[in-house]
Known about the structure:
Elements: H1 8-13, E1 15-18, E2 32-38, H2 48-58, E3 60-69, H3 73-86, E4 89-93, H4 100-115, E5 119-125, H5 132-140, E6 144-148, H6 151-177
Parallel strand pairs: 2-3, 2-5, 3-4, 5-6
Antiparallel strand pairs: 1-4
Amino acid sequence: xxxxxxxxxxxxxxxxxxxxxxxxxxxxxxxxxxxxxxxxxxxxxxxxxxxxxxxxxxxxxxxxxxxxxxxxxxxxxxxxxxxxxxxxxxxxxxxxxxxxxxxxxxxxxxxxxxxxxxxxxxxxxxxxxxxxxxxxxxxxxxxxxxxxxxxxxxxxxxxxxxxxxxxxxxxxxxxxxxxxxx
Length: 182
């Protein structure tokens, strides 16, 4: 029989550092943008300065967060500089799981989408392709979602589109032939 373990207290200790969320502005003069950066899943070919410029084209970037695994060597050298320079909130974890930063992004993004209806846009910055369920959930919550991450995410999005197109073709074929034939 499998053993059930209460890990609640241990889970809270997985955070090495968690900046207090910045308060939202009182006035909303333009659309609000939430920017989530996967510090573990982002190559050096992505310019944070360009990412911020793109985000600011959409509106006021009121949430700026970087998520990272504390044990990743590149974190200390690159992300500490970026967080200070561009005023990011930090979400830093112990490296107990390779996708710990991704999970942090997913939890925070859904929480913000549910609790802060004034947020209009969500931008996920990562090379990882595992954010499609999060994007679908944010879309269900009537949020516009963008993904920035270099060429790799584009390839993954193209593969997903190809798979969806093939699924649609198979569905049309099954309707044409008749579902009893399959």
